[in-house]
Amino acid sequence: MTWGVWNLLAFVACFGAFTWAMQGGLFRTTDQTSPDLTLIRVLGALSMAAQFLTLLLARQANDLRAAAGFVLYAGALALFAWAARTIWHQRLTLAFADDEPAHLETRGPYQWIRHPFYTAYVLGWLAGVLATGHLALLTTVLVMSALYVRAARQEELKFARSALSGAYTSYRQRTGMFIPNLWPRTGDTR
Question: What keywords would UniProt list here (predicted)?
Fold first, then answer.
């Protein structure tokens, strides 16, 4: 098989898992659906279509770049699976839910980053750019990343207003939002 086929398969695996999770396979749903969640779903579907078509039609002139894209897809899927396994018994709600947090997850990838699902999603979007070399796909990365940052900030505000506020403040000091915090704030205990 060519790297193009491998990347198509990796794309389907990643975004199939991501879609399954958002459609109720992993995350708890609340009674209302926010306009922001609808926006993520609509723009996500359009971005997936753009990435899939680009992967399907792209000529694979650079095997190293295509292989690197595949590795990034695999990394995105691995991080997603690790985070999913971590929250399996105590599910989180979907993005932009206005529920009050019931617990603070600090196991698995949450030991290092506060939003591993969003990180996995961004890695998936970046993988398509890397696999194809089509810089126009950076638009999908930027648009979707902006939505994930907005969702993450809203989630962090929920924690700041909840009974878990103190624990979350400490947690924020020792972890990064989307990438590990290599320089925790002074006074942190790990």
Answer: Membrane, Transmembrane, Transmembrane helix
Q: Which residue shows structure tokens 């295509």? A: 66
pLDDT (tens digit, 9 = 90+) per residue, 61-118? 688 999 999 999 999 999 999 999 999 999 999 999 989 998 999 999 999 999 999 9
Q: Are 81 and 23 in contact (CB under 8 A)?
A: no
Structure tokens at 177: 């939002």
Instruction: Tell me the chain's radius of gyration from C-alpha atoms.
Output: 17
CA atoms of 147 and 37, how far apart (whole Å)? 9
Phi, psi of 171 (to 5 degrees): -60, -45
Tell me how far apart the alpha carbons of residues 165 and 158 are, in angstroms, rounded to a whole number: 9
For the entire predicted model, the pTM comes to 0.93
Start-to-end CA distance of the chain, whole Å, equals 45
CB 105 within 8 A of CB 87: yes
Beta bridge pairs of residue 113: 176
Q: Are 96 and 151 in contact (CB under 8 A)?
A: yes
- Best CATH choice for the domain 3-174 from the list 1.20.1050.10, 1.20.120.1630, 1.10.3720.10, 3.40.830.10: 1.20.120.1630
| Helices (H), ranges, 58-174 | 63-87, 116-132, 138-160, 165-174
Residues in the chain: 190
